[in-house]
Predict the structure.
Amino acid sequence: MGLDDRDALRTLRDAVDPALGSEELIRTFYTNWFAADPSVRDLFPPDMAQQRGVFAQVMTWLFDELVAQRADEPVAFLAQLGRDHRKYGVTQQHYDSMQKALLGTLRGHLVDSWNDRLAEATHDAVALFIGVMRGAADAEKEPPYCDGTVIEHIRATRDVSVVRLQLDRPLSYHPGQYVTVQVPQWPRRWRYLSPSIPADPSGAIEFHIRSVTGGMVSTAIVGETTPGDRWRLSNPHGGLHVARDDGDVLMVAGSTGLAPLRALIMDLTRYGVNPRVHLFFGGRYPSDLYDLKTLWQIASQNPWLSVTPVSEYNVDSPWARDYPDVTPPRGLHVRQTGMLPDVVTSYGNWGDRQILICGGPEMVQVTKAALIAKGAPPERIQHDPLSN
Ligand SMILES: Cc1cc2nc3c(=O)[nH]c(=O)nc-3n(C[C@H](O)[C@H](O)[C@H](O)COP(=O)(O)OP(=O)(O)OC[C@H]3O[C@@H](n4cnc5c(N)ncnc54)[C@H](O)[C@@H]3O)c2cc1C
Ligand code: HEM
């Protein structure tokens, strides 16, 4: 039976499901694992709450797929996860100790219903998950990460920085993708950031970072980054894209959500003919629209691009004069005042467009809902995952 035993797999699925109260099981698993193999503990951040939540969700999805007797997607996902996990310094010994700890914890938790069938399914599922991850990690020849040196840090506004790096080797990614980044101020706290330029053969790369209130890594990047800092980058992910043969495009960017859309727009400039692209770029104050001059430059040479600046408030706050002037020369659409979703939908439902939305999770959700409410087809709307 093993992986064919759907009843046993369902028991395992329910045991790890956070919605059914798996918190205690997952906590016990990590405690057991760290006790059995102390070398693992230091790889994780001190606060494990988020990790426990993500791990429980992933395990629930994996068991769901096995219950439905689907293996292709889980295997592809686990192989990618295994390759990605190399950046944490995961070794074969860690996989051994995890396998033992996970099996032991599941057995202890399900002791009342434990029997040969459940034992076999548990053994086979855990062996599959870990076997695929370690096998893919082992087979991967590319280095797990790529280091680079900060060469310029521009404080663009009160809370947005533009950081440019020279990588030790070029990093390959598609325009619109994001990468994981570790900065020296917060070792082991990897965060997603989206390069704001297409992959560069000489290894130049640029990021736009907004410090979020109470945010650990983003506030450190904006407040403390200096030239010479060494950053570590890994694993491009994500599928934001423009299909050049699939009609005109609407892009909606909130603050540094501009970065991946700008990379896509820059990539389009390689072609003479493109679909029309209308970009709404929003911020709270007019001075938050930190990159209008670059957008003006691109639009002035590429007639397929229109840019509408949007700010919530019509006037600037006093801190604006401490930062570079963002006002572009004449040529872009007149700046609109209002909330981004309201302004975008006041132009129509954009139902015939490919729609790409980028920004903070709330802005993306609200803008998407507003567009759908106006009649935009959900399947035409793209955005990145809303959390790390
Ligand atoms: C696919 C993807 C791509 C991303 N690309 C970029 C990028 O190019 N530039 C960039 O500046 N950020 C980007 N982010 C956000 C970034 O990865 C971090 O989540 C963000 O910088 C906060 O990290 P932190 O350590 O400062 O905050 P944390 O300490 O992790 O969180 C602190 C608090 O801030 C909240 N928070 C987290 N992210 C946001 C957010 N974006 N807006 C508002 N509140 C938030 C959390 O819910 C939490 O309450 C991206 C996120 C994803 C998922
Ligand atoms: C069944 C096997 C495993 C699964 C399903 C799994 C799943 C995950 C997931 C989903 C994440 C979230 C972030 C990311 O995608 O990188 C993560 C992070 C992580 N995992 Fe695993 N993992 C497994 C095995 C391991 C092993 C063997 C190690 C060895 C030490 C490990 C160490 C880590 C570390 C250090 C992090 C980063 C935590 C952080 O920085 O917040 N994982 N894991």
Notes: The mean pLDDT is 95. The chain has three domains: 2-139, 146-237, 249-382. Residues 146-237 form a domain with the Elongation Factor Tu (Ef-tu); domain 3 fold (CATH 2.40.30.10).
